[in-house]
Amino acid sequence: MFHKFYCFLIILSAIAFPIAADAGIGPDQEDLKERLGGAIYRDLTLSINENMACMTCHHPSAGFADPKNRIFPEWFPVSQGSIPTLYGGRNAPMSAYAGFSPIFHYDQTNSVFTGGLFWDGRASGRPDYTATGTLGSGPTGDPLADQAKGPPGNPVEMGLTFENTELTTEAAVVGIIERSSYAKLFKKVFGQDAFADVKVAYNNASLALAAFERSSAVTKFNSKFDKFVKEQGGDVSSFGVITITIQDETFRKYVGPPKHFKSRYFSYDEADGLAIFNADSYTQRNLKQDPDNENGGQCYRCHLTQNHVVAKNDPNIPTNGPRPGTYNPLLTDFTFDNLGIPVNPQIAKLAGPQSTDNGLGAQTELLKYACPGCDPKLELGKFKVSSLRNISRTAPYGHNGYFATMYDIVHFYNTRDTGKGIWPDPEVSDNVNKVEMGNLGLTLKQELKVVKFLNTLDD
Ligand code: HEC
Ligand code: HEC
Predict the structure, then answer these.
(1) Using alpha carbons only, how large is the chain's radius of gyration in Å?
(2) Which residues line ligand 1 at a C-beta cut-off of 6 Å?
(3) Over the stretch 257-291, which tens digit does the pLDDT of each residue have?
(4) Region of 65 on the Ramachandran plot (φ > 0 left; ψ -120 to 50 alpha; else beta)
(5) What is the pLDDT of residue 45?
(6) In the predicted structure, residue 131 carries a pLDDT above the cut 90
(7) What is the dihedral of CA 255, 257, 261, 265, to 10 degrees?
(8) Inter-residue contact 280 to 441 (CB < 8 Å)
(9) Distance of CA 241 to the CA centre of its chain
(10) Which ligand is nearest to the CA of 121?
């Protein structure tokens, strides 16, 4: 039995992490770096009880989020630590596609904070800024690598913290890597004296993790949705809608999939779900609705369905970030919003009493740094707009996992402000977005079609 299981594991990991193809002259430095990052990503010994790797909470079977949360979304909205009695306070997002997030900055054109990683953007990637709590090895200049520096030393995650001793998290991690089976690979990528300076080595390990997470083994772009985008000529941002003007306002009117709609990839309902996702709502915007006009979900406003462009020489794209070019939609605009999600009482049951989670608004130091003139109070309760890729596998939903199913969160967007009293009050009542959501006027059938569309986004 053991034998069979072992074979199964090998096959599974080979599918999950194909090693870059050898192009005849051997893998290049970038391939090696990705391979190294994969080895670190899977290393269980990088935790206090040698039972937890990055992959434990960001596993391919759960769309690179936490498989245990996926299976028991009501009971385990948050991840268990290496020390099994400890739990975190937020839902684990996927580690895939995260590498597109720009460096945290204030977007002057749209007057909004943008980018960074974690639900509150605190892994900023700013080369000029060392956040409170950042390990001593200093910024990496990449949000994804800054992020990767956190989990090993987080007591409720990998738990490599050593109170009252000289040992630091960085030294422990670098020591483990130096004694690992992939130490040679580390030297091949970062040079023969790669372990000489602990701080440099720690940052390099994080950069290798980032390279792996950006690689096609993790960030795949091979969902049914991606195939549909290609089939539709490479752009679905206006699929099923037309832009009109009502009462002097621009409005994306739902028209639905074209007559005689045919696709090799999408069913009619999935395509209709995309049309609803792409359309505005009369009800939400208090506009006069003809009886035959259907509302839309307005989802595209934050979860962008237009292709993602990485411009050349964009100062907010880290140098080791995605190559300039056009990518299929990422379904996020990297900004922050307060959806008015209620407290999830299950978190306190697992992790103990929780203080109010103010999200981006609690990152006052970072906010002041990125925009000295801005008022951090205007960011209270805001969390990063999620990419919806792999969404059907990453239950539960929202930063605190309040919603166990995709249907629940869609129903919340649709009915939060309808006064029917089914939703408890928001955890943070400041800055709740009431303009774009809360009373969409979607029918039950439409809600279900949106969910069908969300199901097409899995790699
Ligand atoms: C115990 C579970 C756990 C482990 C282990 C873990 N993570 Fe996470 N990860 C989380 C949680 C929870 C968050 C969200 C925390 C927050 O936003 O404050 C997160 C956030 C992230 C994000 C940010 C995604 C986004 O969209 O903002 C990335 C990327 C990531 N983790 C990668 C990693 C890597 C790389 C490792 C290993 C070095 C790792 N994680 C280890 C639970 C875990
Ligand atoms: C005003 C911007 C905005 C609009 C419009 C919007 N969303 Fe979101 N969405 C967000 C933000 C911000 C989050 C994360 C919020 C949090 O967890 O506190 C999110 C989270 C989600 C999640 C959970 C993601 C996860 O990984 O847990 C789903 C699913 C989702 N949105 C679907 C939709 C759908 C479907 C629509 C249209 C009916 C929609 N959104 C409209 C901003 C928006």
Answers:
(1) 23
(2) 52, 54, 56-58, 79, 81, 88, 90, 92-93, 95, 98, 117-119, 144, 147-148, 151, 157-158, 209, 384
(3) 999 999 999 999 999 999 999 999 999 999 988 77
(4) beta
(5) 97
(6) no
(7) 180
(8) no
(9) 27
(10) 1
**Residue 56 to residue 64: CA distance in whole angstroms:** 9
Shortest-distance Cα residue to atom 34 of ligand 2: 299
For ligand 2, whether the C-beta of 113 sits within 6 Å is no
User: What is the reported pLDDT for 19?
Assistant: 42
CB of 39 within 6 A of ligand 2: the answer is: no
Dihedral in degrees, nearest 10, Cα atoms 173, 179, 184, 185: -40
| pLDDT for the residue numbered 164 | 81
The pLDDT value recorded for residue 54 is: 98
Query: Rounded to an integer, what is the distance from CA 12 to the centroid of its chain?
Result: 24
pLDDT of residue 421: 66
When comparing pLDDT for 11 and 115, which is higher?
115
* Cα angle: 201, vertex 203, 208; to 5 degrees: 90
Nearest one of 191, 93, 205, 196 to 153, comparing CA atoms: 205
State the pLDDT at residue 26: 61
CB atoms within 10 A of CB 25: 6
Q: CA-CA distance, 329 to 142, in Å (whole number)? A: 21
Mutate to test the pocket of ligand 2, among 57, 117, 120, 303 (most ligand atoms within 8 A of CB): 303
Determine the distance from the C-alpha atom of residue 46 to the mean position of all C-alpha atoms in its chain, rounded to a whole number.
23
Provide the token pair at 85. 């009695």
Cα(321)–Cα(140) distance, rounded to whole angstroms?
A: 12
Between CA 111 and CA 336 the distance in angstroms is 12
The whole-angstrom separation of Cα 226 and Cα 439 is: 30
pLDDT in tens, 170-191: 999 999 999 999 999 999 999 9
Report residue 65 CA to chain centroid gap. Answer: 9
